[in-house]
Design a protein that fits this description.
The chain is an alpha/beta fold. The chain has twelve helices and nine strands. Strands 2-5-8-1-9 form a five-stranded parallel β-sheet. Strands 3-4 form a two-stranded antiparallel ribbon. Strand 6 and strand 7 form a beta hairpin.
Length: about 290
């Protein structure tokens, strides 16, 4: 019997493109983990929150670090505390379950209602991390040696896995996932995203801000391209300071760095790049006959 699940169509606070909606619904229908890649700031992590909100499901988040091991997602056994309690004659020492700390997969497998499980930035961990989760994510169960029991998911959680593409993921892991790459939004989609966050914002200001934003992203030699979240921060500052569209449109020599650029340019190399471009523009502008 096929389980019917409401289709994900995005939410009032998250603009989902057609191909992203198709990917989410396909992964849910197939009951496979949805592997989401894309450059930082394209809404990969936020997507899990929006899927949970759309389905009215609890969200369980597992933020992966460089030191994270796959077993951390299952459970941790505190042998040191049990040894200390045995030395002190504590009664709780006789039940090993008192020393087991449930991991995020255990929480997801035993949730009373179907949850959304976010495994965030899986590529930060060791290369063996994804392979070590193959069986657990495929069978939706794992064995607890200390209690001689198998923890099994009665209902498969919706699993979303994000990656910033810092390292390649194993083929065996990729085969078990439904994959989607979030392309950076085009100007039309970005305008819709801006409207969601700033309803009724002046269209002329948005038009000039987006033009400047995409020009910065396309600048050759830029080390870190500004992301969607940085654009939204910049727009908020433009509104607070009441910066006019005309100020953004000004392209005179020395004005190549946009106002409040600290929200967009996040390292000194990129700031120096625009300073050099401004210097060259001033020098070209000051030549006789120019």
């Amino acid at each position: 019997m096929v389980r019917t699940t409401p289709r994900f169509e995005g939410t009032s606070t998250y603009v989902a493109t057609d191909d992203l909606r198709i990917a989410v619904n396909a992964a849910v229908a197939l009951e496979r983990p949805l592997l989401i890649k894309g450059e930082p700031g394209t809404g990969k992590t936020v997507l899990a929150y929006e899927i949970a909100a759309a389905y009215g499901a609890p969200l369980i988040t597992w933020h992966v670090k460089s030191t994270t091991k796959a077993h951390d997602g299952l459970y941790a056994y505190d042998a040191v505390s049990r040894l200390r309690d045995s030395q002190l004659g504590e009664a709780r020492v006789h039940d090993v379950r008192n020393y087991l700390k449930k991991g995020k997969l255990w929480e997801a497998f035993t949730a009373p209602v179907r949850p959304v499980l976010l495994i965030d930035e899986i590529d930060k961990a060791d290369i063996e991390f994804p392979n070590d989760l193959l069986q657990e994510l495929d069978r939706m169960e794992f064995y607890v040696q200390e209690t001689d029991e198998t923890i099994r998911a009665e209902v498969r959680p919706i699993v979303l896995i994000t990656s910033n593409n810092e390292k390649e993921l194993p083929d065996a892991f990729l085969r078990r996932c439904f994959f989607h790459y979030i392309r950076f939004p085009d100007a039309e989609t970005m305008e819709r995203i801006v409207e969601v966050h700033f309803p009724g914002i002046k269209r002329r200001l948005v038009a000039e801000a987006l033009k400047t934003f995409y020009e910065i992203r396309e600048t050759p030699g830029l080390k870190k391209k500004p992301s969607t979240s940085e654009l939204l921060d910049w727009l908020k500052l433009l509104l607070v300071d009441d910066v006019s569209p005309e100020t953004l449109r000004e392209k005179a020599p020395g004005k190549l760095i946009p106002p409040l650029h600290g929200a967009l340019l996040k390292n000194e190399q990129d700031v120096h790049l625009f300073e050099r471009l401004a210097f060259l523009a001033r020098r070209e502008g000051g030549r006789p006959g120019s």
